[in-house]
Amino acid sequence: MLRNFKRMLWRGAETSRRLCSVASQTKDRAQSRSPARRFRGSKEASNLYHRITRLEPSNEGVIQAMNDWVVNKGKTICRYDISNFVNQLRKYKQFSLALQLLEWMERRGMHLTYGDHAYRIDLLWKAEGILSAEKYFTDLPKSFQNKFTYGALLNCYCNEKMVDKAMAHLRKMRELNLASNAPAYNSLMTLHMKLGEAEKVPVLAQEMKEKLIEPDSFTYNILMSSYASLKDIEGVERVMEEVKTRSEIDGNWTMYGSLAAVYIASGLFEKAQLALKELEQRNKPKDREAFHFLLSMYASIGNAAEVNRVWQSLKSAFQKTTNLSYLTMLQTLARLDDLDGLAKCFEEWESGCSSYDIRLINVLMGAYLKRDMIQEAKLLLEKATRKGSNPNYATFMMFVDFYVKNQDMDWALKCMDTAIPKVKEHEWKLYRERSYFLLKNFEEEKDVDHAEELYRILKRANCLDQEVYNFLIRTYVVAGMVEPQMRQRMEADGIEIMPETERLLESICPD
Predict the structure, then answer these.
(1) What share of residues in the chain are helix, strand, coil (percent, to 5)?
(2) Per residue in 367-415, pLDDT tens?
(3) Cα(167)–Cα(173) distance, rounded to whole angstroms?
(4) Which domains, ranges and CATH numbers included, belong to the chain?
(5) Which of 120, 145, 242, 298 has the fewest CB atoms within 10 Å, measured from its CB?
(6) Global pTM exceeds 0.70
C-alpha cells in the first residue's frame, strides 16, 4: 500500500516537471463548485445541459457543442432554456461556460435582451477581469447603455473595491437618471461593506426611503449584515420586522437564513433555531440550497439531532440525492467531529454514486488525517484513484498539512511537488501562501536543505519571486552558511535585487 502511494506521488512529481507553466492553463477565476448535472426542463434540454456541464471552460467547447446540436443533429433549443442554462451555470460559478452560451446566441443572430448584456458584463468580469467587462460596456451601442448595463458595470467596480471608478460611474448614472433603483444602491452598499464602512449602509437605506425606492431582498440582506457588523441586533430585528410587511419578500427563505446566521454569530442560539424553523416553513417549493443551509447552520450550533432530521427530510423531498447534497452532509458531520456518522454517510453515497467525486473523498480523507489515521487516508486515496477519481490540489494540501504537523518535511515537499499539475488559476495564490509558510518554517529551523528543495520545486513551477528568495537567503543567514552563487541565481531567474535583498546578500555572498 505504501509503495503504491509513493508511486502515485512520484508520477505526479514527474508530471509537474513537464508542466512548468501550468499557471496559465485556465481562465476561470473560481470553479469551486461543479454545476448541477440535473436540469429542470425537457428531456432534450436536460441532455444538452448535461453535455455542456462536462466541457472544459477553455476554448470554444460550448459553441461547438451548440452548433453540433443544432446544425449537425438538427435539434432545436428554445431561448427560454438557454437563459436557464446561463442562470444555472452562473449560480455554480461556471462563468466561462455561461459566457460562451451568450456568445453563441449572438453568433446565431438571436436577439440579446438588456438583461443578457448585463449578464455578459458580469460574466466577463468574473471570467476574464474588469478590463474585459469595461471594453464590452464601452463597445455597446448607446441604446444598450442603460440602467441594466450601467448597473452591471457599477457592481463590478464596487465588488473590486475600485472606489474612484465606482464613484465616477455613479455620477454618470445620476446624470442620466439611471441610479434611482435598488440594484444601484445594493452595489454601493456592497462597496461600503467591503471597505469596512458598515455604518454607511443604513444611511443609504434611509436615502432609498426618502427617494421612494423600494428595497429588494438583497437590500434587506445587506442591511441586516451591516447592523450585525455594528453589533446592533435590535437594528437587525427592525429590518426583519419591515421584511414581514413585504409578503413577496417575507416568503423568501434566504431572509430567515440571514437572520439565523446573525443570531449564531452573536451567540443567540435559541433565537437562531426559531429563525431556522421559520426558514423551513418558507422552503416551498423545496429548494436543495435551503436544506444545505440548514445543515450548515445546525452544525454551527452543534445540534446533531436537527442535522440528522434535516438530512432525512432532504432525502425524502427529492427523488435523487445529489453529490452536492452528500458533500454538504459529509462536511457537516466533519464539523460535528462525528467520524462514525461520516463513514456511514460516505458508504451510503459510495453504494449508489455514478461518479467518484474527489470532493467527497477529500472530506473523509481530511477527517482521517486530522486524527493521524494516515494508513486509512492512503488506502482511500488509492481506492479513489483506482475508481478513476483524480486527486486535486486540496487533496495534496491535506497531506502537506499532515506531514508538516508530524514534522516529516521530506514527504510534505513531495506532496507540494505532486500538487503542481493540479493547481487551478484561482488556487495559485493559495499555493504561494502555503510555500511561504513552509519557507518561514525552514527559516525558523535553520533548515537550508529543505528550503533549497522547495526553491527547486517552485522554480519548476515558475513560481519564483522576490519573497521566495528573501526567505531562502534569510535561511542561509540564520544558519550561518554562505552561498556565493546566490546573486547570479537571482539574475538568472529574472528576479530584481531590491535594497533589502542586497543587504541580505552581503551576508552570504562574500566578495
Answers:
(1) 75, 0, 25
(2) 999 999 999 999 999 999 999 999 999 999 999 999 999 999 999 999 9
(3) 10
(4) 180-282 (1.25.40.10)
(5) 242
(6) yes
